[in-house]
Specification:
single chain; mainly beta; six-stranded antiparallel beta sheet; 8 strands
Length: about 100
């Protein structure tokens, strides 16, 4: 499922969707599943030098995020909890 052009106001640069099974889950302090992560998006806010990797639910709502100095770094440091499904990244359309 393709993401929106913007997530939390940041432009989607690259993204990946896990399909029927989530990449992984976010758990509560009591180790219960709080969220399932189906979408990962590397995004950038206008005028910002860093990129963000957003971990999203089935509706592309951000559950977690982290900042990185590059797209490659954002992909390289994918947490183990989000590696239940192999991530094959897609570049977003570069049209303006």
């Amino acid at each position: 499922m393709k993401p929106p052009e913007l997530i939390d106001g940041a432009k989607v640069l690259e993204w990946v969707w896990s399909g029927d099974n989530p990449f992984g889950v976010v758990k509560t302090c009591a180790s219960e599943v709080a969220f399932e992560i189906y979408g990962l998006a590397i995004c950038q806010y206008s005028g910002d030098l860093v990129v963000y990797r957003f971990s999203c639910d089935k509706n592309w709502e951000t559950v977690q995020d982290d900042s990185y100095i590059s797209i490659d770094e954002a992909k390289e440091y994918l947490p183990a909890q989000y590696q239940c499904v192999k991530a094959t990244w897609t570049c977003s359309d570069k049209t303006t």
